[in-house]
Amino acid sequence: LLYNYDLPLIKQQVSKEALAKRQDSFWKFRELLPLKASNQISLGEPYTPILEASFEYNGEVYDVSVKDDGRLPTGTFKSRGMAVAVSKLKELGVKRVAVPSAGNAAAALAAYGAKARMDVYAFMPRDVPEVILKECIRLGAQVYLVDGLISVAGKFVKQLAGDYGWFDVSTNKQPYRFEGYKAIAFELAEQYEWKLPDHILFPTGGGEGVIGIWKGIRELMQLGWIQKAPRITIVQSSGCAPFVEAFVRGRSEIKTSWKKAETIAAGLRVPFPFASYLVLKAVRETGGTAVAVEEKEIVSSMKAFLREGIYAGPEAASTLAAFRELVKNKVLDKKEKTLLYITGTALKHFDSFRVDKSQVHVLNEDTRALRLDREKSERTC
Ligand SMILES: Cc1ncc(COP(=O)(O)O)c(C=O)c1O
After folding, report:
1. Widest CA span of the chain, in angstroms?
2. Ligand 1: which of 72, 74, 104, 176 to mutate, judged by most atoms within 8 Å of the beta carbon?
3. CA 20 to 30 Å from 285, out of 200, 268, 364, 378?
4. How far, in Å, CA of 263 to CA of 246, rounded?
5. At what angle do helices 176-191 and 208-223 cross, to 10 degrees?
6. What is the structure's pLDDT at 373?
7. Which DSSP helix (H) or strand (E) runs through 123?
């Protein structure tokens, strides 16, 4: 299910100029959201910044733009979908919500659900990053860990939602979360003065973000507010890449579950995404492609981002690895304006880096004791 709007009518009601005068937040696109403005549940969602960054690869320097959704209230782009979904569900009178999640969607639902005074039930794989587990618990969600991946978590929600009166907020199984992600396209369009970049690289697990952006781009085109759509390229880990496999084989949907899904990027570990045909359609329609990157490339990209001062979590860091891959294979032209989408902050993931504390200087109060030992002051992780 996807929402349809009376776009010709909305075009009469609101203009780009009127939007420019409103406070920068995705809520400013209220005419294009499915709820009354007075029912918005907000935790203070800003426009997230677009940063310029340069990366060296094979002796060449590449300039890219980076949009950092790590700055959203729950540290990931999942804030967008859950802010809109929870607001709409509250408007509809829903009091209990349940979600299967790799982690960040549950955290976002827990945060907005807390603000909306809803009961939140979160089902996650038992090896969900510990920081996210703690986050969900402290936000007041009722947490269940399952032996298995998000698909197993999904079975619990599907089978029990009716018995317990939960509204099932699963990825791609309701129309509300897309509406939050579609505002990514609106926000980007305004930030780029209504000319979107040529190419967006987006980390993809269930594909909800991609469907949302694509929907937003289509609405912008129909409103006549942008003339050209960007190519949307999905990025996955080679440890779980069902979309990439389906795309490369020319399939219109994913037919079987990915075996032994494993990746450090928990949000990309979705072995059998629901409504996969929509994601593949979005990618093909925009002329984008699908790339799988190696785990070690994800880790090295996270480090490369941090050396630029950019806090990209593992899912987000995969876009830089994909960028390198596309440049290597000449799929991406250096002159194209490329945007790497940072879907989540590195702050939730620092504990996945090992640091040898014995290599770090410990100083007592005697300042004379400090001798700069070059070896020791080299990077320790
Ligand atoms: C940080 C992050 N990036 C990307 C994704 C993938 O998002 P989607 O399921 O919409 O493809 C997730 C999913 O949990 C995530 O947490």
Report:
1. 73
2. 104
3. 268
4. 19
5. 60
6. 55
7. strand 119-125
Rounded distance from Cα 205 to ligand 1 centre (Å): 5
Tokens standing for 71?
A: 């700055």
Residue 201 · residue 340 · CB < 8 Å:
yes
* Helices and strands, number each (H, E), in the chain: 13, 10
Ligand 1 and 206: CB distance under 6 A: yes
Q: What is the pLDDT of residue 217?
A: 98
At 317-364, the pLDDT tens digits run: 999 999 999 999 999 887 899 999 999 999 999 988 888 888 888 888
Length of the chain: 381
Output the CA–CA distances (angstroms, integers) from residue 341 to 9, 66, 77, 79, 331, in the order listed.
32, 6, 10, 15, 18
**For ligand 1, atom 15, which residue shows the shortest CA distance?**
267
For residue 92, how far is its CA from the centre of ligand 1 (angstroms)? 26
Buried-exposed string 129-150: b where 16+ CB fall within 10 A, e elsewhere: bebbbebbeebebebeebeebb
- CA of residue 206 to ligand 1 center, whole Å: 7
pLDDT tens per residue across span 72-112 = 999 999 999 999 999 999 999 999 999 999 999 999 999 99
CA distance 261 to 102: 12
288 lines ligand 1 (CB under 6 A): no
Q: 160-210: per-residue pLDDT in tens? A: 999 999 999 999 999 999 999 999 999 999 999 999 999 999 999 999 999
**What is the pLDDT at residue 375?**
47
Decide whether any atom of ligand 1 lies within 6 Å of the 233 Cβ. Answer: no
Query: Please, what is the average pLDDT of the chain?
Result: 95
102 Cβ inside 6 Å of ligand 1: yes
Q: Which atom number of ligand 1 is nearest to the Cα of residue 101?
A: 14
* Sign of the torsion angle spanned by Cα atoms 160, 162, 165, 166: positive
- Which residues partner with 62 through β-bridges? 55
Per the CB < 8 A criterion, the answer to whether 245 and 215 are in contact is no
Contact 145, 153 (CB under 8 A): no
- Taking alpha carbons only, the member of 375, 256, 247, 269 closest to residue 318 is 269
Return the best residue to mutate from 235, 268, 274, 340 for the ligand 1 pocket (most ligand atoms within 8 A of CB): 268
